[in-house]
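[stage:ingest] chain + small molecule (iron/sulfur cluster)
[stage:ingest] validated
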Amino acid sequence: MHVLKPSFYDDFTCIGKDCLFTCCQGWSVPIEEDVYQRLVTDSSQLSELAKSHIVYNKELERYQFKFIEGMCPFCNKDQLCNMVIEEGEEILGSTCRTFPRHSTIIGQTEEKYLTLACPAVVEFLFSIQGPLSFVMEEDDKGEKGDTGELYEIIELDVEIRNCVIDILQNRNFPLWFRQFVCVYSMDRIKEIHREGNRGLIIKELSHIWSPFYLEELLKEVGSIQEDKNNGFKQLCQLFSDFQDVAMILANEDMRGSRGKVEELIKCNHNCSWENYEKAYVLWEQREAANFDILMEHATVCSWFWYALKEMNRYYLLDNSYIIILEQLLIKHLTILYYCLHQEISKEMQEFIISLCARMISHRRADMEQVIKRMKKEGRISVAHVLLLLK
Ligand code: SF4
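[stage:predict] done
[stage:export] tokens:
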């Protein structure tokens, strides 16, 4: 078997009480039955807490933590996990033990991911100036049995995903255009991809991704006069759509995440286009170059993990929409923060990226409905994405 992972994967360590969130904040965290049984029969203080704050969810047929005001009952005042402190990591259920790591087996390769919902993962992205790289290693698990049929179906998807990563990292083009091409090309092949027409998909993508075509496309879409004011209103509407989720994810924690989110929501409602534009110009002069590199990495990280997550018949296209929505929200929240403070710290930028990843990437089931609704309302299409990205 092979292992494919981001180059910084093995360097990840949790930053504990310095974290801007906690792993579990605002989510519904499952726990395996055997772990629950071990906890409740434990003679330590954990047992009483487990009995009162781990409940069985009949609908989902699983045990899960009952949070107190969005926080895990096992979090202590330093926001460290009392289960780990008292019993060691071995006691944890798999969700708590693995976050922010995830993995999927594709054919003979185990792909490993780190989610941007963890601020310590985002921290890595700040230090990488060149394109984000991935490493392929052999592990000692030997070859898997017959993976043929399933792998054949997704083999082309893996190739498509990897080619899109190359495009996202091609700095000969502006970032907004690279992100646009991601959505545009997935839209162009959506029907032939659904039909599984491998030959036509390859032909179409080779055509769209040729240097000549991309140059021409950039000239064409680059010359379109965008309605920035309208784009601003749509971005405000987009954040309004997610503000309730943002409030659930942000609590009265040590780092004041609730206050930060409330401030951004208020600004989103009250900010005028004139103030936003002024802040945008200032932000662009000071931050845009570094921000673009950061966002290139963030887009690549998310696309690497989520491109192949199947939700429906147009999953490559819908996954590209979700990833770009996440990027748009990160940028919008950054500019809103700039409206208020005329600067942004690295810590706040990390907070915004992790918050958006928690609002969007980590809500796959809900996002399918969100995308469906937005399509119905005519609020998401290739043309809309172009308007918002520019
Ligand atoms: S989100 Fe990341 S840094 Fe924060 S507590 Fe969890 S693993 Fe640690």
